[in-house]
Amino acid sequence: xxxxxxxxxxxxxxxxxxxxxxxxxxxxxxxxxxxxxxxxxxxxxxxxxxxxxxxxxxxxxxxxxxxxxxxxxxxxxxxxxxxxxxxxxxxxxxxxxxxxxxxxxxxxxxxxxxxxxxxxxxxxxxxxxxxxxxxxxxxxxxxxxxxxxxxxxxxxxxxxxxxxxxxxxxxxxxxxxxxxxxxxxxxxxxxxxxxxxxxxxxxxxxxxxxxxxxxxxxxxxxxxxxxxxxxxxxxxxxxxxxxxxxxxxxxxxxxxxxxxxxxxxxxxxxxxxxxxxxxxxxxxxxxxxxxxxxxxxxxxxxxxxxxxxxxxxxxxxxxxxxxxxxxxxxxxxxxxxxxxxxxxxxxxxxxxxxxxxxxxxxxxxxxxxxxxxxxxxxxxxxxxxxxxxxxxxxxxxxxxxxxxxxxxxxxxxxxxxxxxxxxxxxxxxxxxxxxxxxxxxxxxxxxxxxxxxxxxxxxxxxxxxxxxxxxxxxxxxxxxxxxxxxxxxx
Length: 490
What we know:
mainly alpha; two-stranded antiparallel sheet
């Protein structure tokens, strides 16, 4: 039973329970709600909560626990001969899960029939080709044992979902009946409902934290698997990025330094464009512009933040790159050989970052107390002197925090780099040469034809972990600086 239908069934039970609970409460009070401890709606909400919370709680726990159970069961079906040298059983299980998901999606699209997807004697090459035709992400190394394990994984998962559906609906019905039986005039339904809503709000607030923990753990585990296959010293201190995918021969060199250099170089160029323009725009809007002009100019400036990054990438590829090539190419100064270069991506990314810098800096400058400006004017300073010597020094910590936040945004950008900077991993100071970044290579490594259990695919997680630590450090520094500023001037 699809999760959506299960959600709708439980919600329908809760809605019926709400009506029955409210009706029962009024009946116990003789039709006069003044005889009840709480309002009738609280009694209905009590039944609905006792229906929804246990049922959805069981659903969430089941969905979280089932993959671990299936992994433990299916892992024993994989013979040791399937596990390549330098790989591990957990990496082969990752391939099994991907194959099982591909089979599910292919059956849903009609590319595969249910019988073919479940046939233990099915031709591996034929299944692999059908999955590729359906647009599924599969590697060229699917073997018969992996396919059989994936089929078993699908079968056990389907059985588990059926059992889960019955269990969830049963728990919902039991909760609804229990809540309905509790309903009487003396029952403190309001207290129970308010406490339940408080717990739900706490759970909602915890979702972001738990999601972050899940992301970090997934990166850590896969990064650990990568470093089992590839030396950490070669990764962090290697000067060459040259992955060799399956069937191409040679050994891979996966040094991150060229990618980090390209990431930082493009980000610096972007900040050199965004910081002066954004800061000057913030100073004008907060100190010089009239309220009427500000009400129009600031929203128009912030429209840049809402443009999709793929549009910026196309702008870099089709407009900025050819324009720079006309000026700095062979027909001009001769410094540039192609339109994809650090300068192309940096300029366009800088334009994208302008609203981040200007909007944050504008808010910070406006937060400087007016009394400081008035004191400066009282001493005979002009408006420009007040801005230079009073407002900007007071707002400097917050402005630095805004710049660091913009820097972390620049480091994580992908599409502008892919379309505007090229794909060459090199260590060079020439801003008119093509380079690439960590994010661009994460995309390319996970969309290549390498086996998911190979270093060439797992390196994407090591790159992601490195980028996560880098941006996290910048964000922590920015938040620390902004918090220190607020404590001083608010």
